[in-house]
Amino acid sequence: MAVQLKLVNWEAKKERTLVRVGDRIIGGEKFVVIAGPCAVENREMMLDVAERVKRMGVTMLRGGAFKPRTSPYSFQGLGEEGLKILAEARERTGLPVVTEVLSPEHVELVAAYADMLQIGARNMQNFELLKAVGEQRKPVLLKRGMAATLEEFLAAAEYILVRGNENVVLCERGIRTFSDHSRFTLDLSLIPVLKTKTHLPIIVDPSHGTGNRQHVAAMALAAIAAGADGIIVEVHPEPEKALSDGPQSLYFEQLEKLMRDLEVIAPVVGRQLDLSYKPVVPAAWVKVSPLRVAYQGEPGAFSEKAVFQYFGENARPVPQATFREVFEAVAQRRVHYGVVPIENSLTGSIHENYDLLLEYDVAIVGELKLRIIHNLIAHDGVRLEDIRRVYVHPQAMAQCHLFLATHPEWEIHQVSDTAGAVKHIKENGLRDAAAIASLDAAKRFGMAVLLESIESDPRNYTRFLVISAEHVITEKANKTSLIYSTPNVPGALLRTLKVFADRNINLVKLESRPIAGRPWEYVFYVDLEGSLEDPTIAAAIEEVRQMTDFLKILGSYPASP
Ligand code: PEP
Ligand code: MN
Question: For 110-122, what is the mean pLDDT?
Answer without folding.
Answer: 98
